[in-house]
Design brief:
With about 230 residues, this protein is α/β, with parallel strands linked by helices. The chain contains five helices and eleven strands. The strands form two sheets. It has a six-stranded mixed beta sheet, with helices on one face. A five-stranded parallel beta sheet has the order 6-7-8-3-9, with helices on both faces. The longest helix has 18 residues. About 40% of the residues are buried. The structure holds adenosine-5'-triphosphate. Adenosine-5'-triphosphate binds next to α1.
Length: about 230
């Protein structure tokens, strides 16, 4: 276990007139793994977007300390996590830039962040994720499952402090799900990343033993509140 990576209280967003998604409490240290496992539409992707700062928080008072130990007000136009290389995010859909090769996609965040490319780690990721030989293909020239694995390699290349995975194995056939999840677990451990995984399949995959965030639904003033929380550490 390393230092604290995530400390969140009441980070939320209102989606339309009837629904709010809230991350009520989340505390994680390096190496921790937490699974968001709730029904479709419960707000798992939204919660990840809030944590990443990709979805601006609104309507709730709360605090976020994430990575940079900076307190952020929910009304700030965007969250400031310090340098962008510290979060890796595997999105659920539209995950790769179509005009770049697999390798260019994988390297892009590290290049944007101005990080030094760790070529040995890159070669390891390519081999472990079964992508060797596919480096120079465009996303349309590889399978959907291979695209997901490219996105996983891209998210891990910078050894992020926090790795956010949104249904990262949803496009894989059942025979490969366990294998790729186990790989994610080992590679994230190698990278010393804390991991938040949104997945319906985690209950029976490699993350079956991981901690789960509690999920509950409350009605407040006619608005459905979908709330994720984990015990504080
Ligand atoms: N901009 C928006 N305005 C209103 N409602 C929205 C908006 N974006 C998403 N929603 C709704 O918010 C809910 C949460 O969506 P989200 O994608 O976070 O759920 P999820 O738990 O990740 O679902 P899935 O498991 O199907 O991917 C859904 O019911 C969705 O229809």
């Amino acid at each position: 276990m390393g230092g604290q990576v995530v400390h969140i209280r009441n980070l939320g967003v209102r989606l339309g007139p009837e629904l709010a998604v809230i991350v009520e409490a989340m505390d994680m240290s390096a190496g921790d793994v937490v699974v968001l496992d709730a029904e479709s539409g419960a707000g798992k992707s939204t919660a990840l977007g809030l944590i990443a700062g990709a979805i601006p928080a609104s309507a709730f008072d709360g605090t976020v300390h994430c990575l940079s130990n900076t307190e952020i007000t929910p009304h700030a136009p965007r969250l400031d996590y310090g340098s962008p290389d510290r979060i890796g995010f595997v999105l659920q859909t539209n995950i790769l830039l179509p005009y770049l090769t697999a390798l260019e996609n994988i390297r892009l965040p590290v290049e944007i962040a101005g990080q030094t490319l760790d070529t040995a780690w890159l070669t390891h990721l390519l081999g472990a994720l079964g992508l060797s030989g596919l480096e120079y293909r465009k996303p349309t020239e590889i399978s959907v499952g291979q695209r997901q694995r490219v996105a996983i390699a891209r998210a891990l290349l910078g050894r992020p402090d926090l790795l956010l995975l949104d249904e990262p194995v949803s496009a894989l056939d059942p025979g490969n799900v366990g294998q790729v999840e186990a790989l994610i677990e080992v590679l994230a451990e190698d990278a010393k990343s804390a991991v938040i995984l949104a997945s319906h399949q985690a209950a029976r995959g490699a993350f079956a033993g991981a901690r789960r965030a509690h999920h509950r639904v409350e009605q407040r003033d006619g608005v459905t509140h979908s709330i994720f929380a984990m015990e504080t550490v």
